[in-house]
């Protein structure tokens, strides 16, 4: 288990190593092409040190990487910037957001798909402003109104990934407790349930409810997120959210275990169509 930045460096380094070998270059030859010492290339490839976006561009040129989307993805991993050198929108909030949250947002913004199990609250990408405010107030101690407003603003800005082109493909399994827990009061919860039904009808969203009747399940150990990226599965990562930090799992064994767990949860959950009816029933007081 690693923190976000360490995972990003390791994944970026592994991808660069594959690109270099694919170009038929040794680390020494690559270093000479860009005017560096061989040790710098080695440190980057092992994840021991990061690489500035400008330096990464030199390496990608040396390896003759023409795939624009892959270049943008690797540049994001290198420094949370796009190919034009522009920081992601969340950098405007760097004085408010902890590094682990910024790193999560940057991964979310570049992922092509996201699978998530939620056992306590509605996924952030599907929260209403009122629900987000109530959750944030409860989760973060001693918040003044200005900082609360900012954190809610960030939560809502994250939801743009569902409207981007192409949009993030979201698959979510929600434990019934998420729907039954009254966050923010009856009116806030009623609107939140309506929002879930609206989202469930989007082609890029697959929403399933895991009812109490399903009994014990593999997700009882806690919520998790699996990010998948275009062009290469080697960048996929599992995120476990903790009270004060996030843990990132990158080993193939971990990815396989969590992918299988999510598939099992989907199998035992209600179908998307049944889930819509189930949410509607809860909203009607069933």
TrEMBL record:
<dbReference type="Pfam" id="PF13560">
    <property type="entry name" value="HTH_31"/>
</dbReference>
<dbReference type="InterPro" id="IPR010982">
    <property type="entry name" value="Lambda_DNA-bd_dom_sf"/>
</dbReference>
<dbReference type="InterPro" id="IPR001387">
    <property type="entry name" value="Cro/C1-type_HTH"/>
</dbReference>
<dbReference type="InterPro" id="IPR043917">
    <property type="entry name" value="DUF5753"/>
</dbReference>
<dbReference type="Pfam" id="PF19054">
    <property type="entry name" value="DUF5753"/>
</dbReference>
<feature type="domain" description="HTH cro/C1-type">
    <location>
        <begin position="16"/>
        <end position="70"/>
    </location>
</feature>
<dbReference type="GO" id="GO:0003677">
    <property type="term" value="F:DNA binding"/>
</dbReference>
<protein>
    <submittedName>
        <fullName>XRE family transcriptional regulator</fullName>
    </submittedName>
</protein>
